[in-house]
Amino acid sequence: MIDIRIKYQASIFVDANDITPSPDIISPLIDIFRDKTFIPNTFQEIGPASPVPKVRLRLSTTNNEWNIAFATHRINIDKNPIEPRGSNLGELSDFCSEAMDFFGRILNKFNKRANRLTLNTNGLFEEMTETQLSTIYTKLFKTTKFYSENPPFEWDWRSVSEIPIKILELTDSLYVITILKRVRGEIGGQSGVSKLDRIQCSPDINTSSQNTNYRFGLPHIKNYFPQALEIHNMLIEQMEEYINA
Fold this sequence. Notes:
Mean pLDDT: 94
Strand content: 35-45%
Number of strands: 9
Number of helices: 5
Low-confidence stretches: none
Strand order of the largest sheet: 2-3-4-5-1-6-9-8-7
Order of helices and strands: EHEEEEHEHHEEEH
Largest sheet: 9 strands, antiparallel
Distance between the termini: 13 Å
Structural class: alpha+beta
Oligomer: single chain
């Protein structure tokens, strides 16, 4: 099972170019999120949509647990760990409910529709022995003689499938992505910093990027996330069964 939660993220792809870090935008946003005590700040957006760094708006809690980032063509809602094991992230179903509430406040205020919806998470499975970790590698990979004789201590496995999905009256395509990695790092705790060597699991469920029509309103978003959550949980369960078999 997932033992350490690293991040939850929900995103909607919208034309958010006009949601800028200006007083006319920040003031109404602070108002609709007054009960959440978000603080406005900015981030530098760099990427295909913005090859030249662009200053964009972000709302954050004081401890950085919650972040809402308004990029040019998407809005990301992130929930981050504020303690080493990420227990504050809670259940993913609760996160999805809060994210849908946040998206609703934003879309109702700015009259936006989305053309893509995503849900992705990042977490670490429980500790395993070196034998267990090596066995998982041999299950997932048919490799060359060198790596058979010298098992790697880091690796990356990724699979992507496309399946149909019905979102209210709309028929769409869903990309279902699962990434497994063996990772090494450090984690803090009451007794100080300790090293870790674990399997990281990162499911990513998102609608097709091929259809660029802004077709998803708030009812579609509220219909999508419970479906994405169900698929996400199925992926985690199947991965656990597979690596523990």
